[in-house]
Amino acid sequence: MTLSKYFMPINTGSTAGFRYDINTLRGIAIFGVLLFHYKLNFFSGGFAGVDVFFVISGYLMSKIVINSIDNNDFVYWRYLEKRVKRILPALLFLILALSIVCFFIYLPEDYKVNQRNATGSILFLSNILYWQSADSYFAPSSDTNIFLHTWSLSIEWQFYLLYPIILLILSKICKNKLVYLTAFTLLTLSIAVASIITTNYKANASFYLLPTRSWEMLFGGLAFLSEGFINHNRYKKIISFIGYTLILFSFIFLKESLFWPGGYTLLPVTGTFLVIIANYNNSKFIKSSSVQFIGKISYSVYLWHWPVYVIAQYFGIERNFETIALLILASLLVGYASFIHIENIKFINIKPMISLTIILLFTTAISGHLNVNNAVFKQKTLEIADYEKSHKDIIDKQLSRGTCFINEPDKESFNKKNCLCFDDNRKNILLIGDSHAAQLSESLKTMLYDKNIHLLQATVGATFPTINPHNSSKPQLQKILEYVYQDFIPKNANKIDGVIISAYFDTYSDYGKDAVLNGMKEAIAYLEKYGIKAIIIGQNESYTIPYPTIAAKNMEYNINITRKYLNKHDYEMNDFLSNNLRPYYINIINTNTLPDLSSINEPYMFDTNHASRYGANLIVNKVLSDSIATRFLHSIAEKQH
């Protein structure tokens, strides 16, 4: 069946010529993505620029493949070879250049992660790699991944591999234009609906994976099949204007908090679809040299804009209007250089490129699992950065991991006999909570012992410590706290002089702030029913990357970037609970000043949010000097059994 005679535009003039509008779409898309990644608030939906690129790719691939099928000259491997020549040179150069640059500036663990991500990018599997990492694309921690943006290239390549097969099958089974168009439309819409529904349940998978993104590229295919249906210049202009408006509306008004791809994704996708089918190329703006220039270099700019931003952030460069403007300019200049010297090269023979790919792949794979750049850094820097790994035994002891703190119920067992054992010669306080309570247990035991107080401990990982604890992924942990609240406390209320509750409250914010607040109120009321006084040790601050990494960079480069990696949500939750649990809640979060290293270069946190032994001592000293704790301990001292 010959499709082009049914679907390609007839007598539309400009179709056979250069599509200025396609290049304009590329230019708009790259600016949307660039301004979003550089955190400009008025382009909060600029991430939708990637969706514009997806539709364009679908359109162009449809045009290439369907025309070849019609001409009976489609050869799959020749088609792939052209795709390789188009995409791979600039990408390989990017990966090679960044592998060299990052070798000298990235800490060893950071460099290993970087190289593993580079390997995923070379294999066009980075989207799957990032999906498996469980980090959202929009999470602050993703800002440190210099190859994050290659997820979309991986999706496009996977689409390039499968799409011709789908088109070949359709061309065989659909014998006329109506059946073909109907089948293609139904396929596109059914995948779109399924993807939008899936996003509500599996947001991360839906964002990163081809099955839930393919409909956007299929919309590009629909645009190709719909070309030529609009012939009147006035209608072309109107439809084109509506399309551009939808895209710009998406860039300005959409937010990253939306489910994506979801219903709102139809805005940029439909906008791009309308611009393509309108095929309006008579605007001075569209034909302007500056717009066309940005469109031409958009691929190289896309490749380089994100690494420029990530490297700047790695060194803690202040993000203000001037630096953002300079970073944008740098992205455009490096992108232009890549376009001229790499992307523009015409590769006749693909074999050298394949050889380079294999060598680079081997290199990134090896360097992703070995410490290859230790010699670049000071020994003290390496010791700080490696704190968690090198101090594992000390950290386990600090938390009472595997006995009084259980995080892996399949491997560990809560030791009731040792952890919930009373000391008849001392007052007895019960510590309940998650890992943030456990991190303080050793320091609390030591400092309370001097006050003639014995500490009991019941702590489990990632389980909200209220009277109705919940942990759907590890119900065994939930059962430990249920036992403590519903069995141990009622039976031993006369022996328990007080209870300390602590948790990383912000991690339970998915329940809603009010639910967290009410959970704590219910726990306190429940304990008071048994005549047990309680206090809550609030949450400490946390970081988007491991604190030892921050401290190591501070030391190595003589900078102070600590505040740049603080999680702002922690402060919001802390203020909310502190204001609403005033008689019980001890505020420990650091605001004006942040701890640094101990006299022996021990970081005050061993990961993104857990205090080290040094940090725990700082926190407990702060707690015990608080007036709420003072009153609490005084009442315990006076309590008579």
Topology of this protein?
Blueprint lengths: L3 H4 L12 H18 L11 H22 L5 H30 L2 H15 L3 H8 L16 H24 L3 H23 L3 H6 L5 H13 L6 H21 L12 H13 L5 H4 L1 H8 L1 H17 L6 H23 L7 H17 L11 H7 L1 H4 L1 H8 L5 E2 L9 H4 L7 E7 L1 H4 L2 H9 L3 E8 L14 H18 L5 E5 L10 H17 L3 E5 L9 H11 L10 H13 L4 E2 L26 H12 L2 H12 L3
Parallel strand pairs: 1-3, 2-3, 2-4, 4-5, 5-6
Helix pairs in contact: 2-3, 2-14, 2-15, 3-7, 3-10, 3-12, 4-5, 4-15, 4-16, 4-17, 5-6, 5-17, 6-7, 8-10, 10-12, 11-12, 15-16, 18-26, 23-28
Walkthrough of the structure:
The chain is mainly α and about 650 residues long. The chain has 2 domains: about 25-375, no CATH class; about 400-585 and about 610-640, Rossmann fold. The chain is about 60% helix and about 5% strand. The protein is built from 29 helices and 6 strands. It has helices spanning about 5, 20-35, 50-70, 75-105, 110-120, 125-135, 150-175, 175-200, 205-210, 215-225, 235-255, 265-280, 285, 290-295, 300-315, 320-345, 350-365, 380-385, 385-390, 390-400, 415-420, 435-440, 440-450, 475-490, 515-530, 545-555, 570-580, 615-625, 625-640; strands spanning about 405, 425-435, 455-460, 500, 535, 585. The protein has a 6-stranded parallel sheet with strand order 1-3-2-4-5-6, with helices on both faces. Helix 3 packs parallel to helix 7 (about 150-175). The chain is elongated and about 95 Å long. The termini are far apart. Mean pLDDT is about 95; it is low at about 5-15.
